[in-house]
Write a structure and sequence with these properties.
Layout lengths: L3 E7 L2 H14 L7 E6 L3 E4 L16 E3 L6 E4 L3 E7 L2 H4 L3 H18 L5 E3 L2 E7 L30 E12 L2 E9 L32 H15 L3
Parallel strand pairs: 1-2, 3-4
Antiparallel strand pairs: 2-6, 3-5, 6-10, 7-8, 8-9, 9-10
Amino acid sequence: MTLDVRRLGQVDYAATVQAMQEFTAQRGAGTPDALWLCEHAPLYTQGLAGKSDHVLAPGGIPVVATNRGGQVTYHGPGQVVAYPLIDLQRAGYYVKEYVYRVEEAVIRTLAHFGVTGHRVGGAPGIYVRLDDPRGHALLPQRPQKRTDAAAPPAPDFEGLGKIAALGIKVSRHCTYHGVALNVAMDLEPYSRINPCGYAGLRTVDLSTIGVHTTWDEAAQVLGQQLSIRLAP
């Protein structure tokens, strides 16, 4: 079954979340999966795990509580937000695999622009090396299989900038919310929060690491990659 990809442009956050919830509540066994690509006016969104003390100085930017996983993040113009609406039961994979596939789509999108995206153990999302965004060396802090039962180490962001944030919700085996890829943004609002709950975590976009592209091109590439990676 093909993915119904819709490019919505700039849309209201609350109305979009409501539309995703309605779509998910009303879908049946034969409803095609969908992918909505959009951007939002400036706002902070606080996930279910979010602590208010991670919002340091929002100023005039609204803070919206939302029902996705994760902590606080920022949305604004110049960011491609992708909302995959996938029936995981029909697709035949579990939530952990879904997260892996979404992250892989972001990594492949960055590769299209000549940038190497990395995963960090214990911290969902995609990161780039600030000193060498195009280098292929593996990160020491990448996720690794652990044989002991000890608690995994705390995430280590040394030398990294976060370029894509992930926050998902699964209801009756169906996904909504999704992933946000920073393309060409005003990054200043990130300095007013602890992004994803981590004090001092650097946030970057494609333009700050020397990749100049349009929102439309980035949305097209990310949409294509998600369509490939999320197929059953």
